[in-house]
Write a structure and sequence with these properties.
Layout lengths: L5 E6 L4 H13 L3 E5 L4 H11 L6 E5 L5 E5 L1 H10 L1
Parallel strand pairs: 1-2
Antiparallel strand pairs: 1-3, 3-4
Helix pairs in contact: 1-3
The chain binds glutathione (GSH).
The site of glutathione has 9 residues, from helix 1.
Length: 84
Amino acid sequence: MTGQLKLSLYEYPSCPFCGLVLRAIDALGADVELRDVMADSDYLRELVEATGRQTVPCLRIESDTGEVEWMHESRDIVAYLQTI
Ligand SMILES: N[C@@H](CCC(=O)N[C@@H](CS)C(=O)NCC(=O)O)C(=O)O
């Protein structure tokens, strides 16, 4: 199913909630592009424009039809990744 989805995680390395998601990504071997909002201001701008918040982690989920969903909350993101 991940082949039909493009997953991107907006995060930064020293954020503990991001660490929780990053560990889950590693454990699951999930295919998720990491978008460090501290290292790249374009990513931070995208996040704020799309969600109205700069809170990380946030998972951007793009379907094969181009539909985009944004998911906040580390525990929700981990639970979601475990289902795909
Ligand atoms: N309950 C959230 C907490 C996320 C959170 O507090 N993230 C911090 C960084 S560690 C943050 O982005 N703070 C800035 C903000 O919320 O604007 C989760 O579990 O994902």
